[in-house]
Amino acid sequence: MDKNPSLFDFGTQQNGTGFSRRDMLKGVGSAMVAATLLGFPFLTEAEKSTATSDPLIFSQFFMISQAITEHKDLSPGMSARIFNAFYQGDTQFPAQIAALYLLLQPNQRAKEFQQVAKEHNLGELLTRIITGWYTGTVKNGTDSILIAYKDALMYRPVSDGLIVPTYCGNGPLWFTAAPPAAAMPESIKQARLQATPDTVNTSKA
Prior knowledge:
With 205 residues, the protein is mostly helical. Helices cover 52% and strands 4% of the residues. It contains nine helices and two strands, in the order αααααααββαα.
């Protein structure tokens, strides 16, 4: 009895148009990923390209990340950055993600998923993925790639009461915005507005 092909059956069946089923699904997937990432202007072209060139693995990575962090509201933009760092640093990464995805079960708790991954020698990769999301840093060999700072998951539990640790007085990248207006007496404000270049120069003389 013939089996019904699944949505992700990337065989080479022809569909009468000259394109294989794999080509069609990859094209549709790439377009969907590209549309999703349009809302994240901070992404580099390389990060977008990596995600759109392998949309199935990127989607699987995103779902694995949601499962192991137990956060359904993860940012696709940050996911693309972490995905690119792993993808470019390890040629075995796509195959390992595909293998991890096969182990993922509906409503599976993170601890259960991690235990199953360990039993299949994929626990180390899963730990690296968790570390990437929580610290905002991906380690490739001897290099550490900074993916995010204030958006790292480790800061979420205290985000309602504490700013992310930084030398900026009002949170990360605060210095990139216009500084708040300095408080001064109204009389001084009016005097400054009414001053002319000649009076300013005279006052300095």
